[in-house]
Design a protein that fits this description.
The protein has 170 residues and is α+β, with helices and mostly antiparallel strands. It is 38% helix and 23% strand.
């Protein structure tokens, strides 16, 4: 039996464990730096002006066992308005082929529709053809004309510092 439920603060250790399992699957286990403390602060703190929630999470259970998760957050399209971004969708290998991924994705889509979102977006690794085929079977289309960009670590700090120089000159 599949059960999808909103994650709670008590699920933080499980969420961190699932994130690590996803990173292993994506061949990047060394890249996970998020801690349980970060997840607790960013996803389960009081949702006020000083501490906005950065993400929401759904937990998938199969016959009472934790089997996967979907982590998502709001984004905004200047062309279309409110949208949701699905950061991670992961089902443990031993629970695949039972409809959990589809059920998780449908639940996130339902939340997007309920909130009046114009779209639901996510990224998938180009080598992950099983996931790509799965997403396309559900009506998702690849955005071939878009290249994702990212700045992290020292490059991010350097870029932020360049912004301070511009402010100082102005």
């Amino acid at each position: 039996m599949i059960r999808i439920r909103p994650a709670t603060a008590s699920d933080v250790p499980l969420i961190r464990e699932l994130i690590q399992e996803l990173a292993v699957y994506e061949r990047e286990p060394h890249s996970v730096h998020i801690t349980e403390e970060h997840l607790l602060r960013d996803g389960f703190a009081a949702n006020d002006g000083n501490n906005p929630r950065c993400f929401e999470c759904l937990i998938a259970e199969y016959n009472g066992e934790p089997a996967g998760f979907a982590l998502y957050f709001p984004i905004y399209s200047t062309w279309r308005g409110p949208s949701l971004y699905l950061e991670d969708l992961f089902v443990r290998p031993e629970f695949r082929r039972h409809g959990l991924g589809k059920t998780l994705l449908r639940q996130v889509a339902a939340i997007a529709v309920e909130r009046g979102c114009a779209r639901l977006e996510w990224s998938v690794l180009v080598w992950n053809t099983p996931a790509i085929d799965f997403y396309q079977s559900l009506g998702a289309v690849p955005l071939d004309q878009w290249q994702r960009m990212r700045v992290t670590g020292e490059a991010l700090a350097k870029l932020a510092g360049a912004g301070k120089e511009i402010e100082a000159e102005a």
